Amino acid sequence: MSSIYRRFYTEVCQTLFRQPNIVDAAEPLIQRVFPWFRADFYAARVLQIKPQAGCLRLKLQVSRFFPLFTPGQHLQLRVSIQGVPMERTFSICSSVQQLHAQREIELAVKIQPQGRFTGALSGELTPGSYVHLGAPTGDFALSQDHAACLIAAGSGVTPLFSMLNSLSRLTVPLLFVYSYRGAAQLLFAEHWAELQAKFPLLQLVLWDSAVNGRLTPERLFAKLQPELRGKFLLCGPTEFTQDFRAACLAQGVSPNQISTESFGLLQRTAATSQPVRLTLGRQQHDLGGQGSILQRAEQSGLVLRYGCRRGVCMQCLCDKSSGVVRNLLTGELSDAGAGRIQLCISEAVSPVELSSEGLVV
Ligand code: FES
Fold this sequence. Notes:
It is a single chain. The protein contains ten helices and 18 strands. By secondary structure, the chain is an alpha/beta fold. The protein folds into four domains: 1-39, no CATH class; 41-139, Translation factors (Elongation Factor Tu (Ef-tu), domain 3, Beta Barrel), CATH 2.40.30.10; 148-263, Nucleotide-binding domain of ferredoxin-NADP reductase (FNR) module (Rossmann fold), CATH 3.40.50.80; 276-356, Roll (Ubiquitin-like (UB roll)), CATH 3.10.20. A six-stranded antiparallel β-sheet has the order 4-3-6-1-2-5. A five-stranded parallel β-sheet has the order 9-8-7-10-11, sandwiched between helices. Strands 13-12-18-14-16 form a five-stranded mixed β-sheet, with helices on one face. A hairpin with a 2-residue loop joins strand 1 and strand 2 (55-62). It is globular and about 60 Å long. It binds FE2/S2 (inorganic) cluster. The site of FE2/S2 (inorganic) cluster has 12 residues, from loops. FE2/S2 (inorganic) cluster is lined by residues 306-309, 311-316, 342, 344.
């Protein structure tokens, strides 16, 4: 579809239906015949809900239409919370074999007790209820032909666990380091011994930071220097992955040998809040408040579309016509011209002009 036609199509759908496309507009009608139908989502039945290590582990039955995933990928989980459909992005933690053999997917959802979505999840879901899943996406993946170091902290272990759990055999050395705080916070506790026994070339380091202190690059490098080789996959809080990435680079590891996936934003914020003008359709909004542009839009009373709020799902993509923004995951600055930015991880560091047609919910 050419961009002019797409803009025209979106404009017509927004004007007539207040939806970005015809399938979304027709969804209520289709649901009268197929109640489980959601445009762009796959229905999944909840088989099991198990609290563990501050997470809810969800085992879900999917249909044969659910696409194959690559271990390390994430997807959107859509659940109706008190009648309002809400979505968040989570990494798949189960193996591809489990999908093949049983048509099952597992997620480990970190519970934020005050969170609108995760805080309400255990009250909304019971075995037998239905949720909806987006298609798996992302390029955070393990190459099975090369030695690798997988380093995770907290719930960042979920995509790495899927990679390890999906291996049918291991022919190269693999170092897997997982930092957690206290035995009660050890995710997948029932599987680690079994995985170590299954793979002789696996070196598994379960780092209890309540006993050993916080896992830092210095501590890990001092303990395991000869084992650190091959590709590095890092997953955890942003400052954790940034520290390890910087340490790997300082040790001479090439940047293309390091993949990271992070959650949480850097705490650095601009000293003064820069003007941001957001044009939605024909309306212009000058955003007040502090923080990411998404947070500022919300503080200004706008309800915009978002998914993960951590720079993964791309639901909050928006056109920037001018201005410089800082990426709150990496600290990088954009150039001052036109481009596309993710509102949830962008902070204005100069006056910024933005526009979007499909962001309003
Ligand atoms: S909400 Fe997912 S990338 Fe911004």
